[in-house]
Specification:
The protein has 200 residues and is mainly α. It has a domain of 124 residues: Cytochrome c-like domain (Cytochrome Bc1 Complex, Chain D, domain 2, Orthogonal Bundle). The chain is built from nine helices and four strands.
């Protein structure tokens, strides 16, 4: 009997086992989540990809492409294009490498009527090239597939207005015109002889 009494006393000292309270999600939260989901579906359905974006400068991609293609090189940094594509051969000061790569500084071809330098950049050169700095017999790659009209206009404008050169800027429209006129050409210009025939 004493054992039973002690057990009963011990049991009375124990607290009840904890239990989780059933708290359902408030109905207002469920309604808000449902409303947000419905709005998201509606927005996706009615939103047109061609619309101007809600952020940024509010221009669509097509507008940006048109603005760049129609500019005179001002929207593209010609110095950056030069650094990325020309420095390796013509050097940062545009003096080239003697006997290997001709200089663009004080270059008669770079400052000639825009048709000539545009043609050279588009299709490259392979063969003998005579300049005021000497004779060069190397090659220049084509950039017609790598650079856009605006990029070619920008880099030529950069070259023609720097490094001691003083020629006018080149526009993307001029580049496009030469690109269209020479679209069937698949090989580089063969040095002095062919360059002399380019209409200037």
């Amino acid at each position: 009997m004493r054992h039973d009494h002690e057990t009963s006393t011990a049991q009375k000292r124990e607290h009840a086992d904890p239990s989780e309270i059933n708290r359902p999600i408030p109905i207002i939260v469920i309604l808000l989540a449902l409303a947000l989901f419905v709005w998201a579906i509606f927005y996706i359905v009615i939103r047109r990809p061609s619309d101007n974006p809600a952020f940024g400068d509010n221009r669509a991609r097509s507008e940006l492409m048109a603005a760049t293609a129609g500019g005179s090189g001002g929207r593209v940094d010609g110095a950056q294009v030069f650094a990325a594509n020309c420095i390796a051969c013509h050097q940062a000061n545009a003096m080239g490498l003697p006997g290997v790569f001709p200089p663009l500084a004080l270059s008669q071809r770079a400052t000639a009527k825009a048709t000539l330098p545009i043609s050279i950049v588009l299709h490259g050169i392979s063969g003998k090239l005579t300049t005021s700095s000497g004779v060069f017999n190397g090659s220049m790659p084509t950039f017609k597939a790598k650079l856009s009209d605006a990029e070619i206009a920008a880099v030529l404008t950069h070259v023609r207005t720097n490094f001691g050169n003083a020629a006018g800027p080149v526009s993307a429209a001029e580049v496009k015109a030469v690109r269209d006129q020479t679209k069937d050409r698949t090989t580089p210009w063969t040095g002095d002889d062919e360059l002399a025939k380019i209409k200037q």
